Amino acid sequence: MQRRMLSREDEAAAEKGDLEVRREDQDKINKFSRLHQREMLLEDDLKSRAKEREDLEEISNELELADEDEKVPYKLGDAFIMLPLPEVQQLLSKSTDKIETSVSATEEKLSEIREEMNSLKVDLYARFGKSINLET
């Protein structure tokens, strides 16, 4: 990635606010905005999945105190089904693994989005200097 420096004329124009916004600049600004929105959605998704994982771990810890012979209610969709304790623990373990896989995939997407946003920031700040605010 190349970083461009502003020429003295561009820098002076940027400070005056006379810098013209080209089509490619507007496209970069729009792309940055879309990426920022996606970043916020993914962060919210991560928070909800972290809460869900925490809840599953708490349930698993509670079930360790239950009797092995006892049947435990397990939520499947909107209904609760009475299942043997070992089966419920196995299902909870699978659910936790699914969530952890999903969290790692979401974190990877988030990392890619942030890298792209940083690249756009470099380009846009190089072009507009202090005339544009891309801090989120």
Structure description:
With 136 residues, this protein is mostly helical. The protein contains 3 helices and 2 strands. The chain has a two-stranded antiparallel ribbon. Helix 2 runs antiparallel to helix 3. The radius of gyration is 25 Å and the shape is rod-shaped. The two termini are 22 Å apart. 3% of the residues are buried. The model has no long low-confidence stretch (mean pLDDT 88).
Portion in strands: 5-15%
Bin the helical content: 55-70%
The total strand number stands at 2
Count helical runs: 3
Distance between the termini: 22 Å
Q: Which structural class is indicated by helix and strand composition?
A: mainly alpha
Mean pLDDT: 88
- In sequence order, what are the helices and strands, one letter per element? HHEEH
* Main sheet properties: 2 strands, antiparallel
Overall geometric form:
rod-shaped
Order of strands across the main sheet: 1-2
Flag low-confidence runs.
none
CA radius of gyration: 25 Å
List keywords for this structure.
mainly alpha, 136 residues, two-stranded antiparallel ribbon
How is the secondary structure organized here?
Elements: H1 8-16, H2 23-63, E1 71-76, E2 79-84, H3 85-128
Antiparallel strand pairs: 1-2
Helix pairs in contact: 2-3
In short:
The chain is mainly alpha-helical.
